[in-house]
Amino acid sequence: MITEQKDIKSLSHQELEDAVLALGEKKFRAAQLFEWMHKKKAASFSEMSNLSEAFRKKLAENFSFTVLREVRRLSSAEDGTIKFLFALPDDKVIESVFMKYHHGNSVCISSQAGCRMGCRFCASTLEGLERNLLPSEMLEQIYRIEELTGEHVSNVVVMGTGEPMDNYDNLVRFIRLITDEKGHNMSVRNITVSTCGIVENMRKLAMEELPVTLALSLHAPNDEKRKRLMPVAYKYELKEVLAACDFYFEKTGRRISYEYSLVAGENDTESEADELGRLLHGKNCHVNLIPVNPIKERDYKQSTFKNVLNFRKRLEKYNINVTIRRELGADIGAACGQLRKSHLDEMGKNG
Ligand code: SAH
Fold first, then answer.
1. Is the pLDDT of residue 118 over 60?
2. CA 232, CA 118: separation in Å to the nearest integer?
3. Are 229 and 110 in the same domain?
4. Annotated catalytic residue, options 17, 25, 95, 266
5. Considering its fold, how many domains does the chain have in total?
6. 197 alpha carbon to ligand 1 midpoint, in Å?
């Protein structure tokens, strides 16, 4: 589903060949074009110096060329994390985060402008969904960050604004493009897709032969509690969501990563840790504990560090692999959707 017609950077190599032939050019021009877009990360047709001017003109007449424009940048003085606010071609804004780890550089990308999932603690969903991102707009977040920082990006987490499984076709197209060996050639194993649990599409992804890591935003050990935090829980029971995770593991061999944001007094008690332990016991999985990042629009508070440690200890009793997510870019407010939200607020205020 590419919704914008003739968005050239969202085309597969094969589709590009067909398009080039249709314009009356030789097939090898498609390889050159693909390389300019996905390897050399060109920002316009005019940079493509080994293509004739006439051909570049024809391309510009027939296709749109998606490039993101940097609007703002916040750099952490503590750990090298950089948060980017980018403008899309239609001037909507999205955010992406560059993070340095010892295993390589990682970018957290957005999959939608806004989100319609309504998770109670999340800033990205407060204004609802504006629109899906095109595959090119997901790719561009990585390409522009590499160009702007001069750093190579080896890992991608689709954990920024938006629900990737709510923009499924464009997500899959993005994964195929970023892993194309003629393009960026990212390893599919270095990609993580995080979902609030859209069961049909989790099952569909399991069958794509694209074994990315799947992260499931769990945040509660039972349906009742989950409904309080995540409206999507009204649509899919925990039982169905976990069955889809098991199916994903079965088909791909990739261990599921369960995300659990700890909210003081909501989901962080010892009995909830035990309930979660019983729920996940025996599964080949990993639990990522994230002290919730409070947003000003809601009254949720972070669990105390003592509670977080205690929660981990209880879970480990069930033989579950647990990590506490290291907070990167704490000094720049790298929480989901906060930069974009404050930008929208400012624009609103200024008329
Ligand atoms: N829609 C997808 C991906 C984007 S959110 C999903 O739900 O997984 C990425 C992760 O950040 C999710 O686990 C989400 O629940 C979590 N998250 C969102 N806002 C948060 C906040 N304020 N504090 C902690 N985690 C948050």
1. yes
2. 8
3. yes
4. 95
5. 2
6. 12
